[in-house]
Amino acid sequence: MRKNPRQFVRRVEEAQHKINEKITAHEVRIVFDGKEPEVMSTAKAIALAEEEELDLVEISPNATPPVCKIMDYKKFLYNQKRKQKELKAKQSKVVVKEIRFGPNTDDHDFNFKLAHARKFLEEGSKVKAYVFFRGRTIVFKDRGEILLLKFAQELADCGAVEQLPKLEGKKMIVMINSKKK
């Protein structure tokens, strides 16, 4: 027998806050909009909520007595989800673009890749430039480091060096962060 997926979602939502009859405390502190908080029995608070056709929601269960509020619970959950969605949309995702060099890269290729890196940095992306040493070219570590330092210096106007050239296995890597935000 398959369960309805909506039932599962409802159980999870109700597990976040205790509402109405699920509140087990004998007394609760009711918080009203624009009025002073008031301590009353749970039964009286539930009756007050039903009178206004709303729900009694336990906000702070660890307080003594627990703090509750009379509100439309479904509307409260909807607004909470909407706020989380807005926050997620506002988060900026960091994009890292990679540029690969060889230890013997010529000036034309260097300038071509430099133009690409400048474009990436102006778009607001990070640039990870690396020199890949293949086979016996590992002997030219100093050439790779000079190449990456020259690359970082050329991009100093639109990017800041986040990590200086560092050898990791067969790659020497430099990270450049965009100055534009």
Descriptive notes:
By secondary structure, the chain is an alpha/beta fold. The protein folds into 2 domains: 5-78, Ubiquitin-like (UB roll) (Roll), CATH 3.10.20.80; 96-178, Translation initiation factor 3 (IF-3), C-terminal domain (Translation Initiation Factor IF3, 2-Layer Sandwich), CATH 3.30.110. The chain contains 5 helices and 8 strands, in the order αββαββαβαβαββ. The chain has helices at residues 5-16, 42-51, 73-90, 107-123, 141-154, and strands at 27-31, 38-41, 55-60, 67-71, 96-101, 126-132, 159-168, 171-178. The strands form 2 sheets. The chain has a 4-stranded mixed sheet with strand order 2-1-4-3. A hairpin with a 6-residue loop joins strand 3 (55-60) and strand 4. The longest helix has 18 residues, at 73-90. The chain is rod-shaped, with a radius of gyration of 30 Å. The two termini are 54 Å apart. The mean pLDDT is 83.
Short description:
The chain is an alpha/beta fold. The chain has five helices and eight strands, in the order αββαββαβαβαββ.
Report the radius of gyration as a whole number of Å: 30 Å
Global outline: rod-shaped
Structural class assignment:
alpha/beta
- Largest sheet: spatial strand order: 2-1-4-3
Order of helices and strands: HEEHEEHEHEHEE
How widely separated are the two ends?
Answer: 54 Å
Total E-strand runs = 8
Q: Can you identify the CATH class of the largest domain?
A: Alpha Beta
Q: Main beta sheet: strand number and arrangement? A: 4 strands, mixed
Low-confidence stretches: none
CATH overall fold name of the largest domain: Translation Initiation Factor IF3
User: CATH superfamily membership of the largest domain, which one?
Assistant: Translation initiation factor 3 (IF-3), C-terminal domain
CATH architecture of the largest domain: 2-Layer Sandwich
Q: How many helices in DSSP terms?
A: 5
The helix fraction, in percent, is 25-40%
